[in-house]
């Protein structure tokens, strides 16, 4: 994960050297998990999440986006409306550290150099995420940590953004991550010796969701969008 963070900052500074417009800022919000433990709500933030992001705007309609976000994810069967989960009574806590890269697409033109005009646009974002988490398992009704692991996820984000000051853009977004692991919750430990401790639906993967606000600062020379 440290090597990924170094690569992240190298990409930022490399792009800053080019004569394009840039955004750099923060994400503040919450996270929730969707899987084999706890509630089944898709958007239900219950833990604090924060991160940093960088965008390289190639046109008024699309930008390359890079971000680092981290949060805890927690769930408790006692909060579920599913009777079987309430009776089981499992709960867990995991830690997510995610680097994401991809393309953000604006539904309306969002020319950052038209500073005298109020702009607003819905947007979508997707790409690829790599994240670090704890490998868990349940023993005697309590979760235990086995090791740390790294996996991939597909981010699927929708949001709305607007310029609030000359160089500041505020956005609100919901970003679901479809992961390639089924063990954020300890239901499918990778250690073969722990196979008897598996539970839940082993044919579905876990999800986690980031919901919150982005605030970015824009800078850089005016690009020639006509050449795109």
Walk me through what this model shows.
The chain starts with a helix and ends in a 9-residue tail after the last strand. It has helices spanning 2-16, 83-88, and strands spanning 21-34, 47-57, 62-76, 91-106, 120-139, 142-165, 168-179, 207-219. By secondary structure, the protein is mainly beta. The protein has an 8-stranded antiparallel β-barrel with strand order 1-2-3-4-5-6-7-8.
Layout of secondary structure:
Elements: H1 2-16, E1 21-34, E2 47-57, E3 62-76, H2 83-88, E4 91-106, E5 120-139, E6 142-165, E7 168-179, E8 207-219
Antiparallel strand pairs: 1-2, 1-8, 2-3, 3-4, 4-5, 5-6, 6-7, 7-8
How would you describe this structure in keywords?
8-stranded antiparallel beta barrel
Helix and strand run: HEEEHEEEEE
How many DSSP-defined strands? 8
Structural class: mainly beta
Strand arrangement, major sheet: 1-2-3-4-5-6-7-8
H/I helix tally: 2
Oligomer: single chain
* Rg, alpha carbons: 20 Å
Distance between the first and last residues' Cα: 34 Å
Helical coverage, percent range:
under 10%
The largest sheet is: 8 strands, antiparallel, barrel
Briefly, what is this?
9% of the residues lie in helices and 55% in strands. With 228 residues, it is mainly beta. The chain has an eight-stranded antiparallel barrel with strand order 1-2-3-4-5-6-7-8.
């Amino acid at each position: 994960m440290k090597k990924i963070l170094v690569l992240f900052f190298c990409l930022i500074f490399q792009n800053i050297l080019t004569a394009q417009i840039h955004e750099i800022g923060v994400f503040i919000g919450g996270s929730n998990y969707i899987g084999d433990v706890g509630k089944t709500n898709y958007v239900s933030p219950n833990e604090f999440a924060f991160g940093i992001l960088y965008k390289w705007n190639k046109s008024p309609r699309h930008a390359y986006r890079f971000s680092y976000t981290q949060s805890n994810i927690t769930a408790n069967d006692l909060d579920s409306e599913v009777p079987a989960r309430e009776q089981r009574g499992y709960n867990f806590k995991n830690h997510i550290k995610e680097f994401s890269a991809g393309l953000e697409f604006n539904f309306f033109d969002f020319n950052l150099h038209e500073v005298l005009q109020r702009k607003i646009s819905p947007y979508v974002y997707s790409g690829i995420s790599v994240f670090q988490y704890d490998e868990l398992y349940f023993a005697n009704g309590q979760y235990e940590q086995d090791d740390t692991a790294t996996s991939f996820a597909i981010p699927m984000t929708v949001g709305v953004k607007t310029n609030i000051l000359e160089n500041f853009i505020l956005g609100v977004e919901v970003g679901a991550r479809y992961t390639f692991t089924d063990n954020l919750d300890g239901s499918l430990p990778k250690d073969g010796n722990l196979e008897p401790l598996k539970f839940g639906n082993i044919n579905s993967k876990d999800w986690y969701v980031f919901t919150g606000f982005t605030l970015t600062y824009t800078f850089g020379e005016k690009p020639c969008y006509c050449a795109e």
